[in-house]
Structures are given as structure tokens and as C-alpha cells.
């Protein structure tokens, strides 16, 4: 499918699926166990309805935003996604370059197939480094130090991965890293000869930040997938405070869904929170991120910006997240489908689709600026009017764009 024929993120998904072997596509697409949370992240946006205002001048709309201290053309960052080079060689650089074109932040994953320095050299822009909490603390400290030396403006600490989720698609395929062709999956790879020949001739990419670590494979007997096998389940608030003390720039804590966790994280000096359930890839039947967002925003009380990831597939999804108090969103699979379908051009296509849909939604809802988006343009599902969700609805009184602690780092990075 040509990129010009991809007029939605879902069409980009179909194009990516058509060019990748099933084990590879399923690694990027799949979630934990029954994939209830994976689906619910998307469905949560569908459950929320828009209540547009009319007779407003929307001949021009401005979807740009102050996103964690700097102007971005969209209220959006490209979130961290691992192993991208297995789906499109050089895909990490492609994502970062596409983000830089729109002045958007790009978060490089610890499990990326590009190094910290390679991204800084080949795709300079607003760079964040997403650090998984490795059991190998010397390696973790070295990675954080390298990100600081390379000029990354933000450090993203992912806190929702004490152990890996049970990803049954990976178990079914016997997926391992580095990916390899085996008798069990031979025919799956043979049906996608372009991908398979490239990997055979040019060799599979490596994950530089994890180079030298123990090889990771799915173990069907032990019901362990590749995810989270080298991560530290003992990581706690004291360990997070240690990282805060040695990182002098913006610290973003990703993976918060419970409002009771907010105060302690903010108190130790986090500059922003990301409401995230790891794209439904860890704990299944966990709450959808859009459903969790209002209560986390209310608990933050305007002290730090709150972003959201998980389930964003439309520009209207971005609009709904902003209406519920998010300062912006992180894309995961939306831009990932783009790069898997067509490299940098595919990422740019995904971002163009989201930007066009967001601007169109703003016009059709009568809100020419992001500042005009508020909760009164939404009609929520009945679940959010039940007593247990009363605290979530308190976000209606919270400021949509909370004071941005990231400003204090801007001068250093200019």
C-alpha cells in the first residue's frame, strides 16, 4: 500500500502488517495476555463523545503548544519504542528526524537499535532518553551519563515495568533477540522475502545500549516472553530519588496511573508525569490511560504537567486528552506504524494525519486554539459519573496547562 493511500493511522498499520513477517509485526502490535488493556486504551477514546460549539471563527486554528518548556508545532512527543530497527532498518533515526522537523520531542528507548550518540549526531532536536531500570546499575548509570553528555534535554524513567508482561504472541512465535529464523517460524519469514533477505544479507541490527547483556529469548515452558528479563523489580522511590539527584535536567516519570502515587513522585522532584500502562504490554486488565488521566491530573494539582500515552490513533484523541487535562500526548504505535510502513516518510505521514485531524477537530468543535479546549466540550461515559470516579471529575476545575517546571532548564539547552 502506497503511503499516499494511507489516510489514517489504521491504514498505516495495515501497510506495516503487509510488509513484515508475522512474528515481527506481532512483537510491535501485541500486548499482554488477553490484550484487554491493549484494546481498551483505544476503546476509551471511542467511549468519550464530543459536544461541539458553533458560530465561532475557526477560519484559522493553531495546534501549537508549549510542551514542557518549549514551543512545539503539535501538543505531542514521539514516545519510546524498542527494537524499531528490526521493523525498519534505521527506524530510530527516522523517528527522531521526523520529530525534529516539527520541533517535537523524541524519546529514545533503552532498547533502541540506535545509540544515544548516533541519535544526537544524526537527528539533533528535542531529545529525551528513556531509561529502563536495569539490574546492572553500572550500565544504567553509564547510559544516563552518556545522555547528559550528548545534550539530551530530558530523562524519562519508566516505572511500570518491575517485571515483564506475559506477551503470548511472542511466546507463540518463540521470539528472541536478536531475531532469527528457526524451523518453527521459517514459513512466516519466507512469506516476507524482502525483509528476510535484508536480515540475512546485512545481518540483524543490534541494541547498542544493551550490547553485551545476556541473550534474551522467549521461554514457552516457563511462560516468559522477551520483555523485562533484565529489569530490576526492587526499584523504588529511594532509587528514583537517587536518579533525580544525579540528573540535573528535566525528569519525566512514565507509567503513573494511580493518583495515590502522584504526591511522592512530585515531592522528590519530577518535572512531568506520563499516564501510561506501557501500551497494554505489561499488566492486562489494567485501567485504560484515558480513564486514569483525570484523577492523575487532579492529584497533580497543577504542580507539574501531565502527559498521556496509550491508544492515541486519531487527532480527535489528542483533543480529548487535552480536554481532560493533559498537557500533551506521547505517540507509540501511531508513529511506530508509520515508520514500519515507510521509514521517515511513513512517520511524517502519521504525524501529518494526526495534525490534520486535530486541526479539523478544533474547527468542528469551535476551538481555534488549544487554550480554548476544556472539559465542557466532552460527554463522558456513564462509568465516569459513578461514585468511585468522583475524584476523577475534579479535574474539571484543574488548569488545563499547569505551570511548567521545565522552563528552568530551557536556557541551559538553548
From TrEMBL:
Keyword flag Oxidoreductase: yes
UniProt-listed SUPFAM superfamilies: FMN-linked oxidoreductases
Keywords of this entry: Flavoprotein, FMN, Oxidoreductase
Recorded superkingdom: Bacteria
Family matches, as InterPro entries: Aldolase_TIM, Alpha-hydoxy_acid_DH_FMN, FMN-dep_DH, FMN_HAD, FMN_hydac_DH_AS
One GO biological process term: aerobic respiration
Molecular-function GO term, any one: FMN binding
Binding-site list for glyoxylate: 132, 167, 278, 281
Gene3D superfamilies: Aldolase class I
Occurrences of domain FMN hydroxy acid dehydrogenase (ranges): 1-383
Pfam family, any one: FMN_dh
Cellular component, GO annotation: plasma membrane
Family classification: Belongs to the FMN-dependent alpha-hydroxy acid dehydrogenase family.
Protein name, entry field: Alpha-hydroxy-acid oxidizing enzyme
Organism: Bordetella genomosp. 9
